[in-house]
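Work Package 3 (structural annotation) set out to generate three-dimensional models for the target panel prioritized at the project kickoff. During this period the team completed the workflow that converts sequence records into discrete structure tokens, so that structures can be stored uniformly alongside our sequence database. As a representative example, we reproduce one entry of 173 residues exactly as it appears in the project archive.
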Amino acid sequence: MKTLFWGSVLFCMALLLHLVIWKVHIPQRQTKALLRIFFGILTMGILTLWITSSLITSFSLLSPKSFPEYFHIFLFFTSLTLGYIITYPGVEADSPSLLIVMKIAKSTPNGFGKEKLFDMLTDDLLIKPRIRDLVNAKMIYIDGDKYKLTVRGILFVRMFILYRKLLNLPKGG
């Protein structure tokens, strides 16, 4: 119960701080900023719980008392955070599938014309924003008139290649 309570409280605090910061200014490297916000709140929260544990107990709140309880809060919070960060890009950028479904949903009962759909799906809408995201995330960089992978980009690609090999999936997309 303590794990659920304190992990959820800390996660909600981090989520609230994330929303406030994004209202003021959206950072260029959003995933890195999210990691800093969430794990900063976790660190400060666990330290605060540990330092004030006797005070919290006197108010008869659920107070963690041992290292395993703090560790469980850490694991629960980290699981929530990583799950959130993995799903965040789906909110951050419009996926082609989501754009198609939303456009068809907004159309008349007769549907959305095939030609209009293909005209809508341009590089400006689908490709260029992703390239900007990769440059901002420092996965690629521009060298003259060419895009090249950074060390981070190479590691990222290798991770997916390895994962695809483990799943015995064919090369390609």
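The chain has three domains: 2-92, 96-120, 127-173.
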